[in-house]
Amino acid sequence: MSVILWILAALAAISLSGWVFRLAGQKITGNSPRFRDMPFAVAFGYALAAAAVLGGVWLWFQPGATFFRWAVQGFVIFAIAAWLFRLLGRAVGTAGTRKLFRQMPLTASFGILVILIYAVLSIFAGVIAPYGQAEVFDQVNALPGGNAATGGNPDHLLGTDQIGRDLLSRLIYGAQNTVGIAFVTTCIAFFLGGSLGFLAATLQGWLDQVLSRAVDVLMAIPSLIFALLLMTIASAWAGSEKWLLTVYMVLIIAVIDSTRVFRLARAVGLNIVVMDYIEAAKLRGEGLRYLIFKEILPNAYAPLLAEFGLRFCFVFLTIASLSFLGVGIQPPLADWGTMVRDLAQFINFAAFSPLTAALPLMAAGAIALLTVAVNFVVDWMLHRTSGLKD
Amino acid sequence: MTDLLLKIRGLKIEGRSDEIWNPIINGVDLDLRKGEVLGLIGESGAGKSTIGLAGMGFTRDGVRISGGSVEFDGIDLVNASAEVKRKLLGSRIAYVAQSAAASFNPAHKLIDQHTEAPVQHGVMSRAESAADAVELYRRLRLPNPEEIGFRYPHQVSGGQLQRAMTAMAMSCRPDLIIFDEPTTALDVTTQIEVLASIRDIVEQFDTAAIYITHDLAVVAQMADRIKVLLKGDEVEEAETREMLSHPKEDYTKSLWAVREFKRPQKPAVAAGATPVVSVRKVTAAYGKVKVLQNVSFDIHEGRTVAVVGESGSGKSTTARCITGLLPPLSGSIQFDGVEMPADYRKRSKDQLRQVQMIYQMADTALNPRKSIGEIIGRPVQFYMGLRGREKRRRVEQLLDEIELPADQYFDRLPSELSGGQKQRIGIARALAAEPRFIICDEVTSALDQLVAEGILKLLARLQDDLKLSYMFITHDLATVRSIADEVVVMKEGKVIEQGPKAEMFRPPHHAYTDLLLSSVPEMDPDWLSNLLKERGVDNIGDAAVDKMG
């Protein structure tokens, strides 16, 4: 009960300060349009934001808020890095890319920077990682930081897991495995779903009906459970061949996700095939391949690219989920989903050693960071293409 | 002057593109007295709509008023607070948009949308406003005024919707209504109805109005005074009669002269000559609905046949039958005396090449992701088999033909072209196939008059040079007068009347042809009044069409 009263009191205080803020603004600026036409909701929003900032500052100085301080520090570091990256992009490159960076919001440059870092890490994982992903060391030391004075091991910057594998190396190799496989899977899903979707939109009739109903049936089954079911069957087929299971996983996720791509491609395609330029091309006597790849596809790039970004995140999360459940990428290959599962117990040590408890969050954070980054870039691209159309 | 309602002085408006503010309006003055109608005319991009909106103290997104003043009844609208504007808009100033279909909310009944503003502004209660709506519908001569309000926007025709919108604007008895091209999207017969009812109701309630349009003949009927705009500047302003009889500026004179373009009469076709295209007793249907019945006409070499009729009369369907997109149920299409397969998929490449099409909306007819060179180059490569440098030379030659400098336009995208230039690219694409017959589907109806005239002249020149035959689909009889050799009048899927142009424009006509001809607005300011007197108030537009059956 008292909690509700507290919340009500806080809301009232924020409303009041918002109102006072607007009134003061009107008085001080001599009734300028910004304050005069400001709706109360906006003033309330300003007050709420101010309250949140104050709360953050207070939390910063609390002794127990180690993770909060890390999060804020990380946020600031990334923001500065993104800003510097954008500055660099504005100064270097062709006239086209410089213009692109000039109009880019900070979120988008952050997203691009993160994606670039991930790409470099996954491509050059073998060179960058200090040890192999399956290399086991005798000395198990789950204390990251590498500070010998507090009991860490300088050889393993992030420490090791329970059986003594270097975590930093596994995190880097995880980028290669998880991100690489997700990328391949998304590409297959797009090739399948995209080409069939455009085909259905162009030809229509019975082919469209058959494909669309088949997709409806596939989409009616919850995707994660469906994938789990199929993976169980696949693991029986694969037997002891671990790599075969990974191939099956790629195909299964690609097919399940291609249904979503099919829907989008068909909907976008239907809007394009009614255009007069498609009619003109048909009357010219053009073949199906020319129609789809030369007339329809270039006009569908924007929505498809946006969907690619989103779909990539979902595929990536599905792989991580399957690995977490034990049917995805198989050990000893490093994978972020598996890492979260394996290190999960370390959370229990949070009260004694926050550093150790942070270990499973590293892999989880790597997943979260990439997802956020990709979405920022996708948002920006969507905004740009929709803006161009107007 | 105490009866001055709207006073605009030195209005400057800027629009933002690529981070820079570009001027749209460079200092325009405007005075509007109570109960007066001012016509604003100019081509697209002249800033007509922008000024109209500024008269409400409103600017579109990315546009700002950078200087000057807008005063409505003594209230400074540029610096007015949102609160003050909210009270004025809808109750004292109302707006009627070009597309009523896009401006009504499709999810609510007309009367619910009508009563919203009066209730919101506290002018009337909901019941009073609903009763008033019926009264307004009656005065605007809508059919079934008691019931029409309970329909949804998609259940009434375009002309009726435009009048319902006018009624909605009238709902609070505003002092000023801004009409932004309210009849541009309508057929001639429907347009008359809307014009007459708008004019009546504005007179009855002594409302001041700004009437924005690019059609001179329309503005001549509606306005007391006319202001001509060009690229954000005022060209001249005068009383309507004065302006029509003695335009001062060259630009105004050129606007007036557009309607003068006429081609010389061609000699009659030799008897027994084989027509290029012959439509023989074609009957066609979409599903079970018959849209064409027994349509027959011939198109001879080097001739233009104009197909006229209002929307839904089957003009474009005839074109679809000729191109083979809609195989007819019965009847045939002959090319050079040889019957063509009904379905375009069964026609040979050469048959497809001979029949080309130019579309109404150049925006949707050109692939926005392809450069001009690619768009024109494709048929050159596809039909003629030219590649590389030869292809490029041919495309440049074609661009030359349509009077666009090749080096500047070859690599541009359609979005970087104006409407008239896009339409020229559409023509070049059709020419690239080196056809003998081109279907022009309302090619000038989306263009300004000056630009449209340029396109018509280009088509006429190409016809003389290349011995092309045109089928010219249009609802604009002024265009027919200027370019056609023969005219086919269609109504409800049937050919009502056909013959050489000279005969068609000379009485006696078929009753429907007569109605179409007399519905085309003329520059004479008394034309609408005289027409209404002649036909009787209840016998105009759709009503007249219905009566004819």
UniProtKB/TrEMBL annotation, chain A:
Domain ABC transmembrane type-1: 175-382
Subcellular localization: Cell membrane
Membrane topology term: Multi-pass membrane protein
InterPro entries, A to Z: BP-dependent_transpt_permease, MetI-like, MetI-like_sf
Pfam families to which the protein is assigned, alphabetical: BPD_transp_1
Cellular component, GO annotation: plasma membrane
Entry's transmembrane regions: 6-25, 37-61, 67-85, 106-129, 179-203, 215-237, 243-262, 308-329, 349-378
A Gene Ontology biological process term: transmembrane transport
Annotated keywords: Cell membrane, Membrane, Transmembrane, Transmembrane helix, Transport
Record-stated family: Belongs to the binding-protein-dependent transport system permease family.
This protein's name: Peptide/nickel transport system permease protein
Species per Swiss-Prot/TrEMBL record: Primorskyibacter sedentarius
Organism ancestry: Bacteria, Pseudomonadati, Pseudomonadota, Alphaproteobacteria, Rhodobacterales
UniProtKB/TrEMBL annotation, chain B:
Pfam family, one: ABC_tran
Gene Ontology cellular component annotations, sorted alphabetically: plasma membrane
One Gene Ontology term from the biological process aspect of the record: peptide transport
Major site of localization recorded for this protein: membrane
UniProtKB keywords: ATP-binding, Cell inner membrane, Cell membrane, Membrane, Nucleotide-binding, Translocase, Transport
SUPFAM superfamilies documented for this protein: P-loop containing nucleoside triphosphate hydrolases (SSF52540)
Gene3D superfamilies assigned: P-loop containing nucleotide triphosphate hydrolases
Domain ABC transporter: start-end pairs: 8-256, 277-517
Subcellular location per the Swiss-Prot or TrEMBL entry: Cell inner membrane
Membrane topology, from the record: Peripheral membrane protein
GO molecular function terms noted in the UniProt entry: ATP binding; ATP hydrolysis activity
Superkingdom: Bacteria
Family: Belongs to the ABC transporter superfamily.
Protein name: Peptide/nickel transport system ATP-binding protein
Organism: Primorskyibacter sedentarius
